[in-house]
Each structure stands twice: as C-alpha cells, then as structure tokens.
Amino acid sequence: MPPDDCLARNEWICGAYLSTRRRILLDATLQHVRITVLAVLIGLLLAVPLALLARRLRPAAGPVLAGTTILYTIPSLAMFSLLLPLYGLSESLVVAGLALYSLTLLVRNILTGLRGVPEETRQAALGLGYGPLRLLLTVELPLALPAAMAGLRVATVSAVSLVTLGAVVGHGGLGNLIYAGMNTYFKAQVLTASVLCVVIAVAADLILLAVQRLITPWTRTERA
Amino acid sequence: MTTPAGTWNWLTDPAHWAGEDGIAHRLLEHVVLTAVCLAVACLIALPVALVLGHLGRGGALAVNISNVGRAVPTFAVLVLLLLTPVGRWGEGPTVVALVLFALPPLLTNAYVGVREVDRDTVRAARGTGMSGRQVLLQVELPLALPMILTGVRTAAVQLVATATIAALAGGGGLGRIITAGFNLASTPQVVAGAVLVAALALLVEGVFAAAERLGPPWTRGGAR
C-alpha cells in the first residue's frame, strides 16, 4: 500500500516533494540560470558592436534595426526550430535562440541610450581634446548606461521566462520539470518549478537593479 | 537533401495542406485562437486602462503588471491551468493563459496614452462644460488612439508568436506542425512550421502598419 502523504494525494504544495527531489530541482535551477546567463551575455557581446556600428554609420542603422525587429517577431518555439539544423537537440540551441532575442532588445536600448547623449556634451568633450575612442569610453557609453541597463533587465527577465520553452528540445531547465509534470499530472512539480522560475526572474531583476545603481551613481544624486 | 530545399518541398507538397493536420486547417485554428484571445484581452484591458488613465489612478499598477507579466512564463501558466478544473474545458486553459499574456501591453499602452494627453487640452474641454464621460470619450480617447493601437499591434504580434505554445499542451494551431515535426524527428517539417508562424506574425505586423497608414491622420505616429 502506498504511503498516504501529499505526494500520493498529488497536492499542489508538498514538502515531501521538496525534500525528496532536492537534487533534481537544484540541477534544473542551475541549468536554467546557466542558459539565461550565457544567452544574455552572448546577446550583450553582439549587441554593443552592432549598436555602435548603427550609431557611427548612419546608413547601417536602418538595416540593423529592421533586422532586429524581424528577429523579435519570430516565435521562440519557431526560433529553436529554425536553429535546429545548426545546433541539433542541444543546450547550445536554446542558448543561441535566446541570445538572438536578447540581442534585439539590447541593440534597441543601447542605441536609444547613445542617441540620447546631448550634442553639447559631445562637443564639449571634443573641445577638451578627447579622441573618438576616449569620447566613446568615458563620455558616450557611461551616459548610455541607464537606457542600456533598462534593456538588459527586460532582456534577462524575458530570457528566464523563455528558457522554459527549451523543454521542447529537452534543455529547458525548470521548463523540463513543468513539461514532465504536465504529462504525468504532477501538481507539486509544476507549481514548484513555476514558482522557482518567477523567483529567478525577480532575483535577476533585483541584482541588475543593484548593479545599475552601483555603476551609475550620478543618477542617484540627481534624484535626491 | 539540404534543410532549405527539404523545407520548401515539405511546404509545397499538396498532401501537407489538406486534412485535419494540414497546414490550411492549422493556420485557421491559429488565426481564430489569436483573434479570440486578442478580442477578449481588449475587452478586459482597454476599458479598465481608459478609466484608470482618465482618473489618473493606478499608474504604478499598470506599469508593475507589465513587469510581473514578463517574469511569469506563459508556458507555466498554461500547464498550471491544465492541472486545475479549468483544464477540462478543452481550449479553456490556452485561451486564459494567452489572454493573461496579452493584457500587459494593452493595459500599459492605453493607460500611458490617456495620461499623456495634453493636460491643457483636457482642462479646455472641461472649461467648455464637458462632463467627465464626454472628456474621456470625445477628447482623451481619440487623442490616445495612436498609443492604444500600438498596444493592440504589439499584443497581436506577440499573441501570434506565443499561440504556438498551445501545441505543447495538446491544443491546435501552427505549433502542432512544429511539435509533430519534433516527434517525427523531421527537421524540414519543424523548420516549415517555424517559417509559417514567423510569416503569419510578420503579416499581422504588416497589416497593422498598413492600417495605420490608411487610417485617419491623427491615428498615426504612436511611439511605444
């Protein structure tokens, strides 16, 4: 006779589930975080040069923005499918798909930030004898940071939520548990994994907010 | 055979267009599902956002709902609903999950649209003796229309993309072509499904863009 606990009764909230599946939950959470971090970092590494290119060369801005808009219209499930021939059923497939999404959000925000740098500020720096590289690194990029960080936060939170769809190729972090829980009607597993997803998203957002405050101290003093 | 050629052959094979699992039927299911969810979401979100915007209350709520909505994976919501009594109503869980997903852009854009109507214009309307209801319907609503339509457009395109998730839970729509392709390990079919969804999303974006151009001049130029 099976034991009469919350697992056997298939309850939504179940302590026994947490204690017996700790290992599985931890592994899924780690995979979830790993995929998110890799995807957003790769997206960021690609987005910065693209945004700079679009800013420096005016004719490049149109194609870059149009390209990112089209990328963003492709559904996530479809994005994984389109990349399937390149990566096969692997974790890299999910990372690559989500990196492309992050890229689109980041390019737009970084470009908005760069365009928001006042012309007088640039002229003043040039008048002080700043070269183009020094102007970019010490004046333009820092001033574009608030807009870029806002984009980074949206991209990260979206990526955490989209990782779950990686379950369709078997690499979805907590999404794997949700998918498996759906097929076996396992309520505790679905609820626990869903709540963990939201917790990761909120935690990531708060961490990035803290980083933003640290690296842009001038925005704080202005408000005070 | 290479993937693009295989995909093209899959898409142009008349056998894949006919029948219950055919492209034509899945496309219709996808469009109906998207349209129903968009209509329900508009009916819920727009009146609430217009009234809140008119009264100038609940601004933090409108923005926060948008942020929280991004952190909760739609796939998790769908599976959670499937395991509740709602799961027994056929397409019920899919519709509810997608409506919840579509609410944030509609709420935020409509609220911000009404709030951003020039306060002097509103005061002038008040001064001519218009009632609150008349101000909302005859002044604020028309002036906020570009922003509201931008929200509807964003929601529509995102719905087309996200409705693919319905297939993961056994629902209809173009996502079924993708999931069936995964199950058959047929890369051409998976890619063909992805191409169809992306094309539909771009088509919806295009239709909205064209409608904005053909519509009355004051409905144009809504910045996000």
From TrEMBL, chain B:
Its main location: membrane. CDD domains: TM_PBP2. Pfam families: BPD_transp_1 (PF00528). InterPro entries: ABC_transp_perm/SBD, MetI-like, MetI-like_sf. One of its GO terms (cellular component) is plasma membrane. Keywords: Membrane, Transmembrane, Transmembrane helix, Transport. One of its GO terms (biological process) is transmembrane transport. It is a multi-pass membrane protein. Signal peptide: none annotated. It is found in: Cell membrane; Membrane. Residues 27-208 form the ABC transmembrane type-1 domain. The chain crosses the membrane at residues 31-56, 68-89, 95-114, 158-178, 190-211. PROSITE patterns: ABC_TM1. SUPFAM superfamilies: MetI-like. It comes from the Bacteria. Belongs to the binding-protein-dependent transport system permease family. This is Glycine/betaine ABC transporter permease. The lineage of its organism: Bacteria, Bacillati, Actinomycetota, Actinomycetes, Kitasatosporales.
